[in-house]
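Q: Can I see a sequence and its folded structure?
A: Here is a first one.
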Amino acid sequence: MVPTAEVPLTGLHMMKSWMKPACRVFYTALHALLRREKMSAGRDVRGIKRGHQFDKVEMYIFCKPKNPMTCWKKMRMDAEQTCAELGLTYRVKQLCTGDLGFGSTITYDIEVWAPGLQEWLEVSSVSNVTDFQARRANIRYRPSLGGKTRFVHT
């Protein structure tokens, strides 16, 4: 049981060193989550907002430190395009520093308007954690043959 697909996807490449100079690896993962979401007692306990078990699709990228923002922007655009192609009314919000996850340097949440509830619901969160996870898992790449290894970004 994992809270996010980041955990096993990072683990797939733990202690790995890529030799390719154009190191960029893209993943999409589908997994079931079993967790309690933040909700108030007696409210938000029925239907879509129950939040105990749900399926989640996640995008995850390993890339060189030279282009993490390019990869992160592509992931954000892909998430927005999915909402647009589904015909959903959505908005994008940048999280303030106090709301960022433990290793995140920047995060945008994508929220969809739920007319039945008359409120915005978060459907996607796109974060750049630079080399935080790679350092913990020792995931590196070698920029050139014989060159010193460097940590990838996720």
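Q: Show me another, different protein.
A: A second, unrelated one:
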Amino acid sequence: MLEEFKKFAMRGNVVDLAVGVIIGAAFGSIVTSLVADIIMPIVGAVTGGLDFSNYFMALSKSVTAFSLADAKKQGAVLAWGNFLTIVINFLIIAWVLFMVIRGLNRLIKKEADQPAKPAEPPRQEVLLQEIRDILAKKLAA
């Protein structure tokens, strides 16, 4: 059973998937930072200080706070601004992945379109050709 599990775990697809998940998580952190630290502040500056992450709708009358963190402590809130930020984050991740995959596909297509370099003949053939050429020179002389 352990041997069977080892075969399953070391199969190429499983290892590739594990690497993809790890790189995807790291890439997700980069894009999250890109959205939170670069894109959303620009959107906020363009829209006059708009910060989606703090927008919410109180679902309880006991919620009187103006920040999302404080409002969550007071009661139930619908954090639609945070949701909107996550949707924007997702769209950016999807767009960047689309562009990366598109670029990779173009590279792969370029490589496939290039004619393959003919394989060098085996060493035996090269030696036979040299012998043939030497014999032809001796017969011609």
